[in-house]
Design goal:
The protein has 408 residues and is mainly alpha-helical. 74% of the residues lie in helices and 6% in strands. A three-stranded antiparallel β-sheet has the order 2-1-3.
Length: 408
């Protein structure tokens, strides 16, 4: 008999103390979701299937990976101080301003209070908040009786991962934002400013310079078609976003193309190597078997090229091949990382060697992003000067020529 598909339901109700609460729960049906809520001591007032429309926008509080990293760090601190797990949840939730995060923490707390393990409780939450890696490490910590130590390692891992992602985003967002603003300013000049000059030029009775004629022609084109151009850009953007969200092939193609970009592709590649080394170091030091650790690492690779390579490594390692040999055969990882792994395997300090490799490549990414930012600033200023300044020169060029003619 087939197992019913699990769905996400949004619920509102009151807890045992009569306090209003709300959240999300994964279940096979509304009836099953209500039954699960009753077991937790929650009297549900409404249980609805979470909507996922074609264009869904959320204007309320959202939960970011940085919120999860902060929650993990706070929970690790509480438990290291000897505070019981359920009480730690309440203390952390009480200090959170984001209502969505607070509800998420209380959902986990209710699960644990009803007798479930911490690992099972986080697995019951939406996967976008707690991936398999997070859940597996929590489970390993509970089984080893060292949950507070595992939470501390997990918090460090999440903090470093988020810092690395922030670096990559800053390298990509800055030039994109400047180019978008430049495009908007150029469009405004062509649609609103250039036509004013064109009206003046029409009374000159002389042929305009070719450069000016080109800019005037661009202005006339933009005045006629700007609404359609804007619609095409918006439709293309939303179509791509939906295709990226729904199609694995589109996501994989983007991952492969990004690695081929000049400069930026090299930074992305180094970040993937750093993430691989950091994640494998964290999971392996937690006592997770190497084959299982590689399974979790593949999901956190951040790029399909590295994900496929890690899965091939896992298959080779499960067949008896040493990790460093399997890595070398993929031809994806640099020789320095492979050599560090080989030293770690020989010395029995694989997690330490992976940690050093991760730190090295994280520093390389930091330096590369700083260098890229320093390089991009003058290039972008030069680009803006050529585009905006060129348009201004084109508009004033006929006036300059007329002044010369009058002066002659």
């Amino acid at each position: 008999m087939a197992t019913p598909a699990t769905q996400v339901f949004v619920w509102k109700g009151t807890d045992r103390a009569g306090k209003k609460t709300k959240g999300e729960i994964s279940s096979s049906s509304v009836v099953a979701a209500k039954a699960a809520l009753r077991k937790k001591g929650i009297r549900s007032k409404s249980v609805k299937k979470k909507s996922a429309g074609l264009f869904s926008f959320s204007f309320g509080s959202t939960i970011t990976p940085a919120d999860i990293a902060l929650f993990t760090r706070q929970l690790a601190t509480m438990m290291k101080a000897g505070v019981p797990l359920v009480q730690s949840f309440e203390i952390v939730a009480g200090g959170v301003e984001n209502t969505a995060v607070r509800d998420l923490i209380r959902n986990i707390s209710n699960e644990v209070s009803s007798g479930n393990s911490f690992a099972a409780s986080v697995r019951a939450q939406p996967r976008e908040y707690f991936d398999d890696l997070f859940c597996n490490l929590i489970e390993a910590g509970e089984q080893a009786g060292a949950l507070e130590t595992m939470l501390d390692r997990l918090a460090t891992y999440k903090e470093k991962s988020e810092a690395l992602k922030a670096k990559i985003k800053s390298a990509m967002n800055y030039p994109i934002a400047v180019l978008v603003i430049a495009g908007i300013v150029t469009a405004i000049l062509l649609i609103k400013v250039v036509p004013q000059f064109d009206m003046v030029f029409s009374g000159f009775g002389a042929e305009l310079p070719e450069f000016t004629q080109m800019v005037v022609a661009m202005s006339e084109f933009m005045q006629k078609w700007w609404l359609i151009i804007l619609g095409v850009i918006a439709a293309s953007y939303f179509s791509y976003k939906q295709a990226f969200k729904r199609s694995q092939k589109v996501r994989d193609t983007q991952d492969r193309l990004i690695l081929k970009l000049p400069i930026l592709g090299n930074i992305i590649e180094k970040s993937c190597i750093a993430r691989f080394a950091r994640t494998l170091s964290t999971t392996f030091s937690a006592g997770v078997p190497l084959v299982d650790a590689l399974e979790s690492v593949s999901g956190a690779a951040g790029n399909v090229v590295f994900k496929d390579a890690i899965l091939r490594i896992r298959n080779d390692v499960s067949g008896g091949v040493q990790l460093n040999h399997a890595m070398r055969q993929t031809e994806v990882f640099p020789s320095m990382v492979v050599q560090m792994v080989a030293i770690g395997e020989e010395s029995g300090a694989l997690d330490a060697m992976l940690d050093k490799s991760a730190s090295y490549y994280e520093e390389m990414v930091d330096n590369a992003v700083d260098g890229l930012t320093s390089l991009m600033e003058p290039l972008i200023m030069a680009f803006l000067g050529v585009v905006i300044g060129g348009m201004m020169v084109a508009m004033y060029l006929p006036i300059f020529q007329m002044g010369k003619a009058v002066g002659g």
